[in-house]
UniProtKB/TrEMBL annotation:
Residues 1-51 form the HTH lacI-type domain. One of its GO terms (molecular function) is DNA binding. This is LacI family DNA-binding transcriptional regulator. CDD domains: HTH_LacI (cd01392).
Amino acid sequence: MIADRLGVSVTTVARAINGSPKTSAGMAERVNRVAEELGYVRNMEGVKLRTGRTYVLAALLKFPSDTEIGDPTLLGLLQGIHQRCRDTDYSVRTIIAPETGEDTIELERLVKGRGCDGVVLDHTSLQDRRVKYLLEAGMPFITFGRTELFSPHAFFDVDNEFAAWQGTSELIRRGHRNIALLDGPEAYTYVRQRMTGYRRALAEAGLSYREELVRNLDPQADAARLAAAELVRTTGVDGIVCVNDVVLMGARRGVRDAAPERFKNFGFSVRSGTNLGDYLETRPVTSYFSRIDAGWSLADMLIRRIEGQPVEELQKLVRTELR
């Protein structure tokens, strides 16, 4: 019907509806306008059979065990992924990452069962076994974070070294000298990067690195609360660099628990994808990145990878903004 209305071939209509680069912008607009007028609904089952694709993106993400506060950055990532897919044929399948070791099983199910066209992964490690598996399987994927594997792969990442350097440097500029670091487990790539930035900021200010001021923990509020309270009671700490909003909330509570009289002049820094600091009585130093933009970019780059764009063109590193 669309072809008859416009006086063009069925092939021309199919190309326009499928977004083929062989179709001019003018023709695509005409075809889509008539399709809308006629109430045309694309038969996705037929498209899947013809192309061999599922038109599903799988987001295998690590969900927090802390059910009281959760992880607002994770929700922002998912929002951005869904926004990018909104006007496409792709749907999003979110998988809660199980315990370490079992997530590879989830990937095997996706690959062997042809459950998706591509995968988004987060919380990468230096020699990430999941990345190795997907490279070997030939499944398109993108990571939120980098690895140190020799084989290149698509990634989108926040410059974590810069963010930690930025937050630590700003606390030093404001007069803090005994600054602790509350971060995630050392196995994660981003934690190693943050440690480098933290140490660099201290060195540039002529301050000594003190191992007793660093805590690597499960980044949850309760763990951060206990760690912060212990640091305040046993060291001369006057500021804390926090890996995320959840750790910030726990650390603030911990400082209040241990030394409420010091809280007003205590310094906090956080790497954040939210505006949480706007709602606190004392605003922390914030190294900000848009979690929604990050999710949008992850989905956009994955779709481009599925469509054949080279890996080397799909590697993006963004810096945080000081707030």
